[in-house]
Design a protein that fits this description.
CATH superfamily: Beta-grasp domain
Distance between the termini: 73 Å
Strand content: 25-35%
Helix content: 10-25%
Number of domains: 1
Number of helices: 2
CATH class: Alpha Beta
Order of helices and strands: EEHEEEH
CATH architecture: Roll
């Protein structure tokens, strides 16, 4: 009796100061789309998906130990935030 090969992956969604994650065991050859569906997380809140911080497409083949990250919309444009910080007067030394 042979057992089908599986890959263990973790799917994470995060907010400031908190996160949720689920560890999944998927059949070898499973795709990123398969992992997203199996996670049970609502996907309507995400703007993209990454594996170890690199954006990937739904047909990406999952590897054992992959960490899938659900990406949220930015709350502030990084360029605008930097301009606001740079325009504030500096405290004297």
């Amino acid at each position: 009796m042979s057992r089908a090969a599986v890959v263990r992956v973790e799917v994470i969604r995060a907010w400031p100061r908190r996160f949720e994650s689920v560890v999944l065991e998927l059949a070898e050859g499973a795709t990123l789309q398969d992992a997203l569906v199996a996670s049970g997380f609502p996907l309507h809140e995400t703007t993209g998906v990454a594996v170890f911080g690199e954006r990937e497409t739904p047909d990406y083949r999952m590897r054992d130990g992959d960490r899938v990250e659900l990406l949220r919309p930015l709350q502030a444009d990084p360029k605008d935030a930097r301009r606001r910080r740079a325009s504030k007067p500096r405290a004297p030394k």
